[in-house]
Amino acid sequence: MSALKVELRYNPYTVDYSVFVDNKDSSDEFHDWCKNKRLQTWIDQFLLKLIDFYNTRKIELTYIGTALDSEDVKDAINLFLSNHSEIEIILELNVNDEPIENKIFKLKELYKNAKSGPFEEFQTTEMDRSFNKALDPEFEVNVIATMSSGKSTVINSMLGLELMPAKNEACTATIAKIEDCDEMDDFKSRRFDQNENLIDDWCTCNIKLLEKWNDDPETSRIHIKGDIPGIHESEGVKLVLVDTPGPNNSRNTGHRKITESIMKNQLSMVLYILNSTQLSTEDDKSLLNLIKEAMALGGREAQDRFIFLANKIDAFDPENGESVARALDNTRKYLEDNGIKNPLVIPVSAHLAKLVRIVKYNGIDSLRRLQKADLDKYVSLFVEEEEMNMLNHVKDDISLNIYNKLNNSLKKANDANSKAEILSGIPIVESLLDNFISKHAIPAKLKDAVDSFESVMTKAEGIKKLNSIIEKDENDLEQLSKKIEAFVNDKERLKKADNFRKRVQQEKYEISANSSSAIKGIQKNSEALITKVEDKFKEKVELKLAEEIFENTEEKVNRFMSDIQLILDENLGKDFMNKLEDLKVEYDNYVADVLKNSFPDDDDFEIKELQKNTLQLGSINTLIKGSAYDEDVKVGTEKVWQRSWNPLSWFFKKTVNVYEERTFTNMVPAYKELEANLRTFIQKNIKEFHKTSDIQFNDAKGLLIIQMDIIDKRIDENMKDILRLNDDKSVKERIIRSNKSKIEWYDNFKINLSEILKV
Fold first, then answer.
1. Domain count across the chain
2. pTM for the complete prediction?
3. How would you label 725-742 residue by residue, b for 16+ Cβ within 10 Å and e otherwise?
């Protein structure tokens, strides 16, 4: 059987793809799976569809794209062949290795030059905001962990000093953001309260100061700046480590919502730290469920986003029969049992990496006596024991490029400390961060930045169509002018436009089926929770047991309230986008109807295309990004619609009675107060949801009407330009020259842009 020859092209900067099969363009066959989607979300399915659709057993596949994306293509093929031994796939790579940072720099220069070009859109604050937001250099790496996993040690190992204090995750509500600034010699910090009011401004920070701030209930967020030595700043990206309290935090129940938003933010990474010596906790299960849901939707990109660190690997001693490989297998199994498929688990000794780097950057005398003893012990353990080579344990799980780079560094290391640093596993994590930034974060930023040029592209195409009309001879131009004037002044068209506006403005908010279902689910689950609580809150309960019941119930109810707000928030966002999409479809249908009735003849093609371009509405994402509705949301500073009311304050008002020389409490009054407060909380949140949904629906309608007003203005301007041509030939020549100059500039701009984005 002859081989099926397939050429697959993919550009991560434009999210464009093409498929040629036996030299024939077959891209449309894969449209539903690949169009406007990142390769990592469809490459596995692509291979299956290819085999099924063409009924072949042998493929010669040529991949053209970036070197980083080619790693996913190779991985997908290897996985596919491991499950389909009867298939043969021969892969040839044609990849581009240009540093992605160059593209960011070139795009910024192109935009800067465009500001002095002939298109005033490049000079607007709206485009400036959209472009700068798209290329916002901050890239967040969220460090999440549960109790006793060594989160502070992991962060300190990356900082190379003892800066972040160890803290009780259940009691600490402080969010710390550590921004990488290579030019700084020390670390500085400032802090804010829950209302984002500055408490203390920038000052040199150390572990004692951060402990003091962390213990202060007024502290909500700490911002730290300094050089993170294992990470190098690159053009367009500034890494920010975010130390986030767990979702079950007792001082601030809102952290569960923050954790949820972190999981869904596709342009951030998550380092999830586990204690390899003690895997299972209830907190783990709650967190892992959130991760499972996020990973299920993200394809291969999600596999890169979530890195699981099996910390405290230094606790295993091969001489005592303790196996790191077995500990890793246990960790993977634990994650898989919690629904995490194919987790990327990196074994690390953050303690060893921290000690080695403290000595590396500040000298041996900066360690305490016990730390020096630990350093000697663990350096010896990791350098002398083959089992403690973390790089070998993950060789098959990381890219060959990362493995070779670190392995070469290991071979060149000329002292035990340098070898131990690499063997500790922390440099593997740092390399994976760099890899994700180059492979996913920067391409997505470039795509968003280019999308902000959409209005210029629309206008340029309109100018081309306008010029093709006004370059005609006088007789043709006069006829076209009359038709355009008739279109602009067409009472039937104006009536339709007015009716469409009125219909949009008069539309009433109706709750979506999904939101209605979500609210019913909330009400059903609240009744189930109330029933469970009632069974435990009796008239006579021994105080010690009552305290346990109070504590467990408080945690469950807090988590339930947080879940309610998360569910309603998520539905708010979906409803807003869906309504905008519905309104855009309505508008597009209206435009199609207007053009069909106004220009029924084929001879009117040029005018029809001009008006079609003029009436074109931008994409939903572009409309939002350029509007006041698009607001930056940063972790820890979020302002959201739900109330911060806490219905559980009654837990600290207990009725105590003495029976038989033992202390008991009557829990029935507490239950009744809980029931009333919980029902009120749910009722108020649902009411607030309906109110906010109604406001958002009106926002969506307003956004469409504003765009229609802008489009009407464009139509009038086009008509005025064309009508002026009949009155003055010199005006016609001047407009043609001006438009040709703009078209020439725009074509050159497109060439430069394509050159930047090509692979």
1. 3
2. 0.75
3. beeeeeebeebeeebeeb
Determine, yes or no, domain membership for 662.
yes
User: What pLDDT is attached to residue 662?
Assistant: 57
Shared domain for 345 and 418, answered yes or no, is yes
Q: Tokens 């990206």 correspond to what residue?
A: 237
Please check whether residue 460 is in contact with residue 254, taking contact to mean a CB–CB distance below 8 angstroms. no
Q: Which residues, 6+ apart, have CB-to-CB distance to 101 below 8 Å?
A: 234, 235, 236, 237, 442
Instruction: Specify which residues 90 forms β-bridges with.
Output: 60
Given this model, what pLDDT does residue 65 score?
94
Neighbours of 135 (CB within 10 A): 20
Lowest mean pLDDT among 227-231, 254-258, 338-342, 735-739: 254-258
pLDDT surpassing 90 at residue 261 = no
Taking a C-beta distance cutoff of 8 angstroms, is the pair 291, 272 a contact?
yes
Chosen domain end from 447, 466, 499: 447
Q: Residues 178, 155: contact at Cβ < 8 Å?
A: yes
Beta strands per DSSP E along 197-279: 198-204, 221-226, 238-243, 269-275
Of 529, 519, 559, 521, nearest to 285 by C-alpha is 559
Do 251 and 153 sit in the same domain of this protein? yes
Task: Answer yes or no: do 611 and 571 share one domain.
Answer: yes
Considering the domain boundaries, does residue 493 fall inside one? yes
pLDDT above 70: percentage of residues in the chain = 82
* Domain coverage including residue 317: 135-447
- The answer to whether residues 490 and 598 touch, using CB atoms and an 8 Å cutoff, is yes
How many C-alpha atoms does 272 have within 13 Å on its Cβ side?
27
| The pair of three-digit structure tokens given for residue 161, joined into one six-digit string | 């000093």
By the 8 A CB rule, do 746 and 467 touch? no
Tokens standing for 524?
A: 């059903």
For the residues 132-143, what does the mean pLDDT come to? 87
> Tokens 């291969």 map to which residue?
300
Residue 246 pLDDT = 60
pLDDT single digits (tens) 311-329: 999 999 898 888 999 999 9
- Sheet harboring 306-311: ordered strands across? 198-204, 188-192, 221-226, 175-180, 238-243, 138-145, 269-275, 306-311, 344-347
**Are residues 351 and 297 in contact, defined by beta-carbon separation less than 8 angstroms?**
no
Task: Verify that 503 and 432 share a domain, yes or no.
Answer: no
What Cα–Cα distance (Å) separates residue 521 from each residue in 332, 342, 461, 515, 676?
Answer: 33, 31, 49, 10, 19
Distances (CA, A) of 657 to 550, 588, 667: 17, 71, 11
More reliable by pLDDT, 91 or 512: 91
Task: Give me the count of residues in the chain.
Answer: 759
Same domain for 460 and 361? no
Q: What is the pLDDT of residues 5-56, one digit of tens each?
A: 999 999 999 899 999 999 999 999 898 888 888 898 899 889 988 888 898 8
CB atoms within 10 A of CB 405: 14
Beta bridge partners of 179: 225, 240
Same domain membership, residue 617 and residue 495: yes
Instruction: Assign 648 a pLDDT band (cuts: 50, 70, 90).
Output: very low
Q: Are residues 427 and 463 in the same domain?
A: no
> Which of 500 and 635 is assigned the larger pLDDT?
500
CATH classification of the domain holding 22: 3.30.420
Q: b/e for 407-420, b at 16 or more Cβ within 10 A?
A: beebeebeeebbbb
The pLDDT, as a whole number, for residue 652 is 36
**Per-residue pLDDT averaged across 113-137, rounded?**
87
Whole-angstrom distance, CA of residue 238 vs CA of residue 180: 6
